[in-house]
Specification:
Layout lengths: L1 H9 L31 E4 L5 E3 L3 H8 L3 E9 L23 E2 L12 E9 L4 E3 L1 H4 L4 H16 L3 H5 L4 E2 L37 E4 L5 E3 L12 H9 L3 E4 L10 E3 L4 E3 L4 H6 L15 H12 L30 H10 L3 H17 L4 H11 L29 H8 L13 H15 L12 E9 L5 E8 L1 E4 L9 H17 L9 E3 L1 H9 L2 E8 L4 E11 L5 E6 L2 E3 L5 E3 L2 E3 L4 E3 L60 H9 L4 H10 L5 H11 L28 H8 L5 H10 L4 H10 L1 H5 L10 H7 L14 E11 L7 E8 L2 E6 L2 E4 L8 E8 L3
Parallel strand pairs: 15-19, 16-22
Antiparallel strand pairs: 1-2, 1-3, 3-5, 4-7, 5-6, 8-9, 8-10, 10-11, 11-12, 13-14, 13-18, 17-18, 19-28, 20-21, 23-24, 24-25, 24-28, 25-26, 26-27
Helix pairs in contact: 9-13, 10-11, 16-17, 17-18, 19-20, 20-21
Amino acid sequence: MAEVSEVLMSVLSTIRVPRPGDRVHKDECALSFSSPESEGGLYVCMNSFLGFGSQYVDRHHTRSGQRAYLHISRTRKAPKEDEENSGSGDPPKKKPTRLAIGIEGGFNVEQEQYEEEVKVVLFPDRQEVTSDDLATMPDLVRERVSLAMAGLMSADSVSHALQVQQWDGEVRAESRHAVKLKQLDNGTKIPPSGWRCEVCDLQENLWMNLSDGRVFCGRRYFDGSGGNNHALLHFQQTGHPLAVKLGTITPDGADVYSYDEDDMVLDPKLPEHLSHFGIDMMTMEKTEHTMTELEIAVNQRVGEWEVIQESGATLRPLSGPGLTGMKNLGNSCYLNSVMQVLFTVPDFQSKSVTVYHFYLLVCVPDSTAKLGYGLLSGEYSKPAPDPGEGSEPSSEPRGDQVGIAARMFKALVGRGHPEFSTNRQQDAQEFLLHFINMVERNCRSGVNPSEAFRFLVEERIVCQQSQKAKYTQRVDYILQLPVPMDQATNTEELQEAERRREEADSSGAPPPAPVRACIPFTACMAALSEPETLTDFWSSAAQAKTTATKTTRFASFPDHMVIQVKKFTFGQDWVPKKLDVSIDVPDTLDLTALRGTGQQPGEELLPEVAPPPLMTPDVEVKGILGSHGNEEDDSLYSPLLCQSVSPVLDDSTVSQLCEMGFPLEACRKAVYYTGNTGIDAAMNWVMGHMDDPDFSAPMVLPGTSSAPGTTPTESVSEEHLATIVSMGFSRDQATRALRATSNVLERAVDWIFSHLDDLESMEVSEGGRSAAESEGSREPPPGPKVRDGPGKYELFAFISHMGTSTMCGHYVCHIKKDQQWVIFNDQKVCASEKPPKDLGYLYFYRRVTE
């Protein structure tokens, strides 16, 4: 060991002890999805704390010169035989008794048990040093290496620190009715068993009202089970708020529900309230499922195959390149589904593979490229190990894979985001746009795969009074398809189902089977293309409010079209709800008829003039003197041309917008450009311009080139110019950025990076020409880069959602691979027998080339 001891002594300076705040990557390889459970284990650099699989650790050693690595390997323990395992080979798993994660009695986040082996490996000779070997080494070596090993093993890994390890869903508040609850002295005494609903004689799911002791059945569940709502009806008739679920009463407590507070609550005086009706809490035993247990049972079923639309079919498992499953990291099915589809698009495939091989050369991790390579390579598309060695072979193929856990990628895309950084369920459409925005920001100067989805929308607004038109274009990535419920083809069936449901509610009978609305896809497209009426439209031609019609068309067709069915909406009570609809989405789609045509021959355009600010009668203004004006005649006065008079804005509207958290300058512009027409119009302007780069910049009046209080020819700071030029930009580009941001360096830097496409089109001023001359001779910057082509498409993927809202439920995706539909349900990858194309949420089409 003397030789090893000398090597350790020579590299002791590169062995660090983790400090609080250090990021330790000991669960996953930085360049692949290898883990300590993988073949060869994981090597953690004892200097940078990055983890590397056995196939990449030599590369990191060669490039970095690091020699000391902590090698961690784990092997699954053989399941222990137990009298309760019924010969299945699986150790008996304790059933959760709390609606919680990571705490005693809750869902166990570490189901599998492993044997772990830890040692130091010295490269390039791969000399191994165990904890026992350190005992014979010099004190300095032994103490330093032992502390480093212990620190690395005890430190929270990055993935562990990013997850919510504990969540308790049983935390209940004390009812405000409990302490002063009035109980009637009606002589009612409740027997210890044999309870029945006083109305329907139901013998389960029974609730006793704590005010009068009457027993009724509970609420009816969505599937028709449960009760007949008689306890709820009793509260509505009497106003008695608290009820206890019979059968859940034990010496430790019981389920208490407050109908007034509409939640499960705590009753600190429950023993006293129960004894009033002859119930001794200390002698009661539980005979009914608590509400928590019922919720747990539902949560245990959510991830099972029964909730998938193809649950009745025997699905054939698939594996290989492009057929890799993804582990669910806790409500990450939305991320899994979106990324599976995106890495089917050639632009994202080529980008990820190219970037991945580049970062392999320099041995630098890139989470997105690593995810793409992991899904496409097939290296991790392997069947999952059997649950236990002694388990009986299943009669049906399981379809589970080892798959990949996109922990580093999820941490990257969720960093700093209030929703995607959590373990809560999210909207797949919102995540898709969030990821596209990230790609846009990081691919300004290189190949941008999001261009595959980018298209231009043409909006044509026609003033009904002047018949003049206005054309605008905007960039979009997703086509939102409305769902006209009034166009259902089974209206009579829906009305009959609603009638039967109302009869069931009034009679207390079980509800009938729900009927799904069938909406023709053609009706959805017709609703998309029909003109929209705009009331209170300010016409620059009529110089007044009037009515206008807005028509939306495509100015370009992308290579890949994403269609979102607008299933999620709000009810009249503003409660989110999901429309239960079936839409006959076609395999092929022709959008050619929806291409915009631009200005028509003979069509007049609305003048490009902003609405005037409200001028009160007591404001004295002077017009601009010219060949047709004088101080006595202000008939030609235009506030839009006056640079010496600030506009008069409605202060109350500005204040209301500011109280909502919007920047002051943005609020002033919103009120100005909507002509002081009220909070609604100003709010609409704010929501439509939040993404503008100058959203919060000082307001620049039309006809001027600077904000109030400055001059168009205001000089820029030479110091600021030099700073921006040192970043690699030209003097003209730096000048333009500073002038656009009122000479504020920080804002100018942000502005210049958000206008790179425009700046790249600028001609650098030549010698002997001023910046102003360069500006005057420069062509207008081009619009956003979009691809265009025929509007004919074919369906290649769709994402489906199961649940009542985007904040709960489950996502899966179907992707067409080599003319075969494949279902991706997290780690399950199987050939689809009957893809439910009519129940999708997001549809992905690719252009058909003729």
